[in-house]
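All the exercises in this workshop are built on plain-text protein records. Sequence and backbone structure share a record, each on its own labelled line. The structure tokens are whole numbers drawn from a learned vocabulary of backbone shapes. The record below serves as our worked example for the rest of this section.
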Amino acid sequence: MATLHKGFLCPPPPTLGKTITVLSIDGGGVRGIIPGIMLGYLESKLQELDGKDARIADYFDIIAGTSTGGLVTTMLSAPDENNRPLYAATDITDFYLNQCPKIFPQNSSTPITGGPKYNGQYLHDLAKKMVGHITISRTLTNVLIPAFDIKLLQPTIFKTTTAKANALMDAKLSDVCISTSAAPTYFPAHYFETQDSGGDTWSFNLIDGGVAVTNPTVLAMTNVAEEIQKRNPDFRNIEPMDCTRFMIISLGTGVEKQKEGYSAAEISSWGSMQWIFNQQTGKTPLIDIYSNASSDMVDIYASVLFHAKGVGSNYLRIQDDTLTGHATEMDNSSKENMEKLVQIGNELLKKPVSRVNLLTGKYEVVQGEGTNEEALARFANVLSNERKCRLAKQAQY
């Protein structure tokens, strides 16, 4: 799946190990800084165990990301000229601090009927500059990035496994990044075509993957089930959706739940414009609602599934539901707000591991599991041991 480089291979197949390792990253625009902090810390712990050349992609069988999470997924998994990850996880925060003010220029005004808030040109150019003509089949580990085809009215899920089998799904990573980030009202939809060796073409008319699934954790799990059904040799001897074999880190980009949203009485008189743009808050309520609902439903499902199987500790969800003010906005790239998001990320590391309360929808402390920082350190040990186990078995063949 990858090339030897200074003692490192990206993951040998899970059939050689005990655990299927999954990393999932939510959408959320500039709030991608928050999971970036988590990933930087996780990678630093892996480097303590396995050396400075260790990278996130060396340890995960699948990295899934939606919208801004799809951009992070690409940064972690796209190959550079040495066939190693394009970015270290420790570079993600600086990338956001440097690039977000240009992706989300603060002199843009929110239109009511005059088109998207941003023209997206800088993001388009940046994605092409980052990954050029690299296609999704060349990622250093399996990735999964959702978008939504507005013409077909159905999700389009870009996957390394599918791209290797079907050239028409082997899109350029730049097109995938642009598509999964094309949030309605913020960026224009993205059109592109693919072509196979026989000259057949496929057209894509895509918008943000978050309209289908903000949190792609379960999509990653079902991708494993799909590969098992296809008899992919990398996934031999694994039962579909067997939680006892999964180890998942799911990273949110923060939400606002401590403050109540809208009352039924308040929204009863809303028309289409109020749902699209709330003048009092400066937000797009419709996008906020479907984004939060999608993310929460996936988290609740995964949490219940893992606990029902008695392996709740195999699933780590890190999410901050205490965001307030400008920190809740997906496009506020002011220096003050981005520095605040860095602070929120660092503070989140120190907060205790929490899980969603199925009744209130809010996150509550899980006794006995320590802080998120300590949980990530434990997961780093599991990841390191799993990789060493696989490499030892691989050497026997």
